[in-house]
Amino acid sequence: MSKNLPLMEGLPRAQLPTDEPLILASGSPRRAELLKAAGYEFQIQPAVDSAECGICSRETAPEMVARLAFQKAVDVVQKNRRGLILAADTLAACQGKILGKPDNREHAESMLRLLSGRDHDVYTGVCLWSAGTQRCYVDVVRSRLKMQSLSEEMLQDYLDSALWDGKAGAFGYQDGNDWIEVVGQDSESNVVGLPMERLAELLEKFDSLADKVQKEVR
Ligand SMILES: Cc1cn([C@H]2C[C@H](O)[C@@H](COP(=O)(O)OP(=O)(O)OP(=O)(O)O)O2)c(=O)[nH]c1=O
Predict the structure, then answer these.
(1) Every domain of the chain and the residues it spans
(2) Which is nearest to 125 in space by CA: 175, 184, 198?
(3) Which residues pair with 94 in a beta bridge?
(4) Residues facing residue 92 across a β-bridge
(5) 26 CA distance to ligand 1 middle (Å)
(6) Pocket of ligand 1, beta carbon within 6 A
(7) What percentage of the chain has pLDDT greater than the value 90?
(8) 93 backbone dihedrals φ, ψ, rounded to 5°
(9) How far is the CA of 102 from the centre of ligand 1 (A)?
(10) Rounded to the nearest whole angstrom, what is the distance from the C-alpha of residue 173 to the centroid of ligand 1?
(11) Which residues catalyse the reaction (predicted)?
(12) How do residues 5-50 score in pLDDT, each as one tens digit?
């Protein structure tokens, strides 16, 4: 992260529900930084890129992040006999359009032009899966955001910075821009890729929440 924003301070940490090691099934540097800042010990095993695939035009943003988080978890569960697998997927949504990571500068520019001056949502799907017990739970958290109208200069400066690269919606909330803010008490860490408050709740309640998976993945 470019700045040590307050969002990295005071993050909650819960006890793990099993004695399995926590495995972050993500290559996102933001997710690793958030987990580390909260004090979790974990390994990193990103899911293969192909786990993040499949398009269904009727899917809503929350449905899509739930599905993609689940698909990423499946990929990593297959490779581990033991481990509490944590996978996530983050997307932005504005005016009925779902925004993932931009392919290039032009794509980033079109996303930022859509978001400029508009309220929008960021959704993160989280999948927790105990490989040892084959129990799993998927949840989705929404954060509402407001983006100021970007002047042409602000837009080009941000595009020049390349900070949009690899970030859903082509912006990094954590980059310290004053033109974007989270509404009310909505989760900031959720915007950056992992809803730390909800993650702590899910870990605490995992035993009662998680269901035995229908088809075991070994
Ligand atoms: C909206 C927003 C997203 N992001 C990031 C979080 C995620 O890394 C990324 C969304 O892409 P994801 O596909 O959710 O995650 P990823 O490709 O980085 O990693 P993996 O698939 O291995 O789990 O956008 C920010 O860093 N800041 C923001 O403000």
Answers:
(1) 6-212
(2) 198
(3) 97
(4) 99, 122
(5) 9
(6) 26-28, 30, 46-47, 52, 72, 88-90, 92, 101, 122, 166-169, 171-174, 191-193
(7) 88
(8) -140, 130
(9) 11
(10) 11
(11) 89
(12) 678 899 999 999 999 999 999 999 999 999 999 999 999 999 999 8
Residue 162 and residue 93: Cα distance in Å, rounded? 21
24 phi/psi in degrees, rounded to 5: -85, 110
The candidate with the shortest Cα–Cα distance to 158, out of 182, 181, 176, is 176
> Which atom of ligand 1 approaches the CA of 65 most closely?
14
Q: Does domain 6-212 have CATH number 1.10.3720.10?
A: no
Q: Identify whether the C-beta of residue 48 lies closer than 8 Å to the C-beta of residue 75.
A: yes
pLDDT of res. 196: 98
Over residues 132-143, mean pLDDT: 97
Active-site residue, from 89, 139, 157, 178: 89
pLDDT tens sequence across 87-128: 999 999 999 999 999 999 999 999 999 999 999 999 999 999
- ipTM, two decimals, is 0.98
